[in-house]
Amino acid sequence: MPRSAPRHDRDAGGPAEVLAAKAALRDEVWSAMRAAKVARFPGAVGRIPNFTGAEAAAQRLRALAAWEAAAAVKANPDSAQLPVRQRALEDGKIVYMAVPRLAEREPFFALDPAHLDQPPRKAASISGASRSARRVMLEELEPVDLVVI
Known about the structure:
By secondary structure, the protein is an alpha/beta fold. The chain contains six helices and five strands; from the N terminus they run αααβαββααββ. Helix 4 links the parallel strand 1 (72-75) and strand 2.
């Protein structure tokens, strides 16, 4: 019997109809990604998916005035945002990234491009950040100019 995808809202509160609508929208997006063959390994279902074109999307983001003006960027640890984190570091921006599953007492990695001991591509990865980033509490974050979701 195939294993069903985990429910992303299993610990979320709110009205059942809102949670059902969110689940239906996720299924619709995952199905569209599969049909278009744009989901990268390990696939779209049950996760925030990586996708073909993530690098181009990060490059388009880099061309926006909001990106140019930002000194600090908050990006998710998902694979699809790796190019965003990398480009932010290359552009001299502080990057805040949640520790995966917010599993630590200090729930954020703070990556400062002035203090990296590895190239931006490697530092921007989860494994790289776990080695070279400073871990910080929410109240320790400097003002964030741009949040990428």
